[in-house]
Amino acid sequence: MHNINKKKKEYDYLIVGAGLYGATFAYLATKAGKRCLVIDRRPHTGGNIFCEEIEGINVHKYGAHIFHTSDKEVWDFVNSIVPFNRYTNCPVAKAPDGKLYNLPFNMNTFYQMWGVTTPEEAINKLDAQRHDALLSMRREGVTEPRNLEEKALSLVGRDIYENLIKYYTQKQWGRPCTELPAFIINRLPVRLTFDNNYFKDSYQGIPIGGYNRLIEGLLEGIDVQTHIDFNDIKDKWRDIAAKLVYTGPLDEYFDFESGRLEWRTVRFETEVKNTPNWQGNAVINYTDHITPFTRIIEHKHFESFGDEVYQNPKTVISREYSTEFKPGMEPYYPVNDSKNNELAEKYRAKAKEEKDVIFGGRLADYRYYDMAPVVAQAISIAATELT
Ligand code: UDP
């Protein structure tokens, strides 16, 4: 790293992590006249939104990312860097019975599951299903859902839980639904309209030309060094910059002194197929317990604005396998069960005491964030920090 010993405090901010939080903060700080150095230990910038071009298709290397928000400021901000298309996420689930169901749970799903054709019929069916579930919970003395399973049963009943939630969730988190926090499925709405749009937000899309354009736009003109592990320069960061913005894993910053936080990580098997359209949708979830992967992503559909992508005779798919994180792997999802949350709280309290250090983003907060809240968080921290 060429700058380190050259001049004392050459930078106002050393930003650890070139993901969405780090890049947004660096962009705003630079605009405010601050000097920033962004480092990342991976060979590329972008964190988990990094895309690799294969057969002319932007492949979401670290899993499907669909930007969605109702925050106009955030939407306008990202669109000022790169225009977004209007991709609408409508995932489909392949259930244990081998049939396809629309997600999120809506009139299409209820029709496919029970043959009901009107909202009234669907309400009656859902009510009956919920009633049965609540009765059996009450028999066990449960009045308020205590975990994801009980929450799901009280929301949609047993048919939908068993076919579309239980095994997908267990595969994704590697834990039974009875040991998972209920909030994880808050993002799955229940609708009485024939509306397959997964997200309720006002704005939704993918950067035209891919996510790398967003990150490159944010980091344009800013000093960035990849292949730099913060651990190797931890002791001397104050020689480089006045302040630190840390977006790496929270426990790692403190050398795991109180123990390790658990994460889920994802492994992808990516394959090129000699067909212009392999599964007809960007996301198909496998909600059964026999298929070992959780979903298959067909990347070109994210860019299916107009029909140009289907003129490409090839397509790229990724099978997504969820696994427990081990040191050396990339952490993806924080496991927000009570044990891990308690440990994270301990670290968060310590983080608050750190002088001249800002912690931000999914890894440093140990929170299951979508992209838009990460951008919003960086905008808001920058607003207080840079005024
Ligand atoms: N989920 C589910 N069945 C599905 C899709 C999602 O039960 O077909 C539940 C599951 O508990 C999962 C959560 O919803 O952990 C969030 O899933 P989503 O695919 O939205 O998460 P992402 O991985 O995209 O952040």
Structure summary:
The protein contains 12 helices and 16 strands.
Write up what this structure looks like.
With 387 residues, this protein is α/β, with parallel strands linked by helices. It folds into two domains: 11-84 and 202-260 and 334-385, NAD(P)-binding Rossmann-like Domain (Rossmann fold), CATH 3.40.50; 92-185, no CATH class. The protein contains twelve helices and 16 strands. The chain has helices at 20-31, 72-81, 107-114, 119-139, 148-173, 211-219, 230-233, 237-240, 250-253, 338-353, 361-365, 371-385, and strands at residues 11-16, 36-39, 51-54, 57-60, 67-69, 92-94, 100-102, 203-205, 223-225, 241-246, 263-273, 283-286, 295-298, 315-324, 333-334, 357-359. The strands form four sheets. A seven-stranded mixed sheet has the order 7-6-12-13-14-11-15. The protein has a five-stranded parallel sheet with strand order 9-2-1-10-16. The protein has a two-stranded antiparallel ribbon with strand order 3-4. Helix 1 packs parallel to helix 12 and helix 2 (72-81) crosses helix 12. The longest helix has 26 residues, at 148-173. The radius of gyration is 22 Å and the shape is globular. Uridine-5'-diphosphate binds at residues 93, 103, 164-165, 168-169, 172, 184-185, 187-188, 285, 287. The site of uridine-5'-diphosphate (UDP) has 13 residues, from helix 5.
